[in-house]
């Protein structure tokens, strides 16, 4: 009877050891599966980074190599790259819209034309909208003013010579300052003349 109990307990113990070993193997396999999934996610991240870098490289190559050579030298663009290019373009459009709104609040607005950019510089004084002046700039090298409605006594040529080729924001800012100074003085003179007429009657 003791022999049967010992063999039974040995059989049970060996069975338990087998179960424990198989449970350990299952746990190891599950750990490997989790590591595999992590590696797959990392690979996907790296692929998307690679696609973004390819996009940037293509853009740089197309900007540095003119014409057909740029097309020959550019890397093939995958669907993911096209999507990332689209996302970058959409972000740039949103940023540009924001800048145009900001410029509009500061009295500057612009729109693209067939040959370049048309700017509108609005002037104001103490919350009163005064006048708007227009300026068409041809986008070519060098930048050139095509048409404008800037008064003759504003030193447009001098301002353009100093700033237009170097920094268009600075050019527009300096020109806007001159136009606002003129519009303010004109407004003040008009107000004085109106007050003078009222007093004289």
UniProtKB/TrEMBL annotation:
UniProt xrefs under PANTHER family: CENTROMERE PROTEIN O, INNER KINETOCHORE SUBUNIT MAL2
Subcellular location: Chromosome, Centromere; Nucleus
Annotated keywords: Centromere, Chromosome, Coiled coil, Nucleus
Top-level taxon of the source organism: Eukaryota
Organism classification: Eukaryota, Metazoa, Chordata, Craniata, Vertebrata
Protein's name according to its UniProt entry: Centromere protein O
Listed InterPro entries: CENP-O (IPR018464)
Main localization of the protein described in the UniProt heading: nucleus
This protein's encoding gene: CENPO
GO cellular component: Mis6-Sim4 complex; nuclear body
Coiled-coil annotated residue ranges, if any: 29-63
Family membership noted in the UniProt record: Belongs to the CENP-O/MCM21 family.
Organism: Naja naja (Indian cobra)
């Amino acid at each position: 009877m003791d022999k049967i109990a010992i063999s039974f307990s040995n059989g049970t113990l060996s069975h338990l050891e087998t179960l424990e070993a198989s449970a350990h193997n299952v746990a190891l396999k599950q750990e490997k599966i989790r590591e595999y999934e992590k590696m797959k996610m990392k690979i996907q991240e790296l692929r998307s980074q690679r696609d973004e870098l390819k996009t940037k490289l293509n853009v740089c190559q197309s900007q540095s190599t003119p014409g057909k050579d740029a097309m020959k030298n550019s890397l093939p663009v995958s669907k993911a790259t096209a999507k990332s290019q689209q996302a970058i373009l959409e972000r740039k459009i949103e940023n540009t819209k924001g800048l145009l709104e900001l410029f509009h609040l500061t009295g500057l607005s612009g729109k693209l034309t067939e040959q370049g950019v048309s700017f509108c510089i609005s002037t104001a004084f103490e919350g009163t909208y005064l006048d708007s002046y227009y300026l068409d700039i041809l986008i070519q090298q060098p930048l050139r003013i095509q048409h404008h409605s800037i008064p003759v006594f504003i030193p447009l040529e001098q301002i353009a010579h100093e700033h237009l080729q170097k920094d268009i924001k600075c050019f527009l800012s300096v020109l806007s300052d001159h136009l606002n100074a003129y519009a303010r003085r004109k407004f003040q003179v008009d107000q004085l003349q109106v007050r003078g007429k009222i007093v004289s009657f």
